[in-house]
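Sample A.
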Amino acid sequence: MLNAPMPLGECESLPAVCTCLADRFCRVDGSPPARLLISTPDEEHHAYVNLSAIRNDQSLTHEGRGLAVLKRIAACMAPTLLSRCEDLVAVSAAALEIAMQLGDPEFATLERTAVQRAMGQRMAVEPLSTTHIDLGGDGKVLVRQTSQWPAYVDEHGQRVGFGVEDMPILEAGFAAAFGLERVDSHTSDTAGTKSFALHGNVQHCLLETPDAALKAAFVGRPPSFDDDVLHGVAKLFDEAQIHIEPPTHEAGGQRPSSAILDVAERRIERSEADGQAHRRTMGLATITDATGVRMGKPPGTSHSPALVLNQLSQLSATFEFNRKAALA
């Protein structure tokens, strides 16, 4: 894990994010929690993140467990981001922002919401959810979210499924990639500020079922499952000030979704109109008396920052990562 404090400051959505993470990964009501996996390029197999210590820590509140999960996830992602952007403060902020996305209730249920729009109450069984964080060798973090339904209710009210564990009747999900890039001239301005942009896009969407009737429910339905997911990602990335890139062609099978492109084009037009080259950036104060770093809306916007980290100026060469400890 991070061998340095990662204090979170003023953030309006933090309690809701922590509660969502605790609800997903630290359930204590007897129902199975969502699975969290981590994999790296040099590993043949993925590894489950062991959250039992957090789950069983009686000194933590429910929200406190979620905060511990948030920091654990950020600690796992930070080394990968650092390989592409050698700025410890920027990496800390970006890793926490991505982890905050995973704790956003809308982001956490995007694929389930898209399925429910098509199927209504027929997917009455609670799905098993998995978040797989793939730490790429290119300095990017790939987040795969999937939900698996063991059964559904057909038009006659009958439950349809295989009745066998690990054989879902429907699997749905998507993969979103995140990367951190420096967007200024690589030299601090007179105010001692460096700018970095957190980029994100959809790599692909997944919707698989061996059931013919279930397939028919999704075919030809406007909007498609892919568009539902892409619209949702575009909305959330725009709100979080994550630079939106067009999805890869695999995302929708054909051309990138107009939802993503439209949001990106509006962002660019708005930037040019305001005379700001980079609207989706985070300003990092590096002057000697800096007490914090903000990741969120650029100066002049009406909204408060999405994430504020306080007192990170002390981080230096002693800032080290221990991934094995993060997975322990």
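Sample B.
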Amino acid sequence: MKKYINHSYFYLAIFFSLLAGLEIPFNTITYSYIFYLISKKSISLIVPSVIVIILGYAAFAILGYIKSVVVNKNIYLINHKLKNNFLMSKMSHVTEEQEDFESGNLSFFLNDLKLLEDNYWRQIFSLLGSVIMTLGTLAYALYSNVYITIIF
């Protein structure tokens, strides 16, 4: 499968998947900070904090969109190379007497590549984001309070 991967788009998709995975740790930190502001009654920090939090949410919304665009482009390039390679190899072996060439290979184009796309490529990038989300949330939880983190 390595020969079908466009490395620049693949690494870009990994990068944006990792960045988008930081959204939940960001949410955790902002909720914690809001409770800190409430408990310390820091009224002067509320407006700047809300502005920074809104900008953070906007940044993560943009990151999510960019991630989906890059992942979709990556999957398109992989499928395009797979289809070209498959067609070239099949067309070099086809003869006039061969029946059902089109219908026999149509399943590959319509079903198998879609399954590969949904069950493999999209899951890889989703898994990367989930790992970063878990590690980031765990790191912040351990930083905040080790004992409560161990209990939960």
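B remarks: The radius of gyration is 23 Å. Residues 46-91 form the longest helix (46 residues).
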